Amino acid sequence: MLSWFTMLSRVSDFKHHWSDVLAGHLMGLAFAVLVWLIDLFVTLVSLNDSCDFDARALRA
């Protein structure tokens, strides 16, 4: 929410053009989603590696 209010204040104070602010916001959002996905992937891989589950035991 803080980034949204910062966007609005920059445009309403005529410090930046709305398209520049929107582009910066979208780039920041894309970077945040990318970092979140990488962190999620690393967490899932580490959980899978530490699991003692053996799928072959289910077939027997």
Could you walk me through the main structural features you see in this protein, from its secondary elements to its overall organization?
By secondary structure, this protein is mostly helical. The protein is built from 3 helices and no strands. α1 packs antiparallel against α2. The protein is rod-shaped, with a radius of gyration of 21 Å.
Name its key features.
60 residues, mainly alpha, 78% helix, 0% strand, rod-shaped
Number of strands: 0
Oligomeric state of the chains in view: single chain
Radius of gyration of CA atoms, rounded to a whole number? 21 Å
Percent helix: over 70%
Largest sheet at a glance?
A: none
Shape label? rod-shaped
From the N-terminal CA to the C-terminal CA, the straight-line distance is 53 Å
**What fraction of the residues are assigned to beta strands by DSSP?**
under 5%
How would you classify the helix and strand content by structural class?
mainly alpha
Q: Number of helical segments?
A: 3
Could you give the order of the helices and strands? Answer: HHH
Name the average pLDDT.
82
Query: Regions with pLDDT < 50 over 5+ consecutive residues?
Result: none
Summed up:
Pfam families: PAP2 (PF01569). By secondary structure, the chain is mainly alpha-helical.
Task: Give the helices and strands, then pairings.
Elements (H helix, E strand, L loop, with lengths): L1 H11 L5 H32 L6 H4 L1
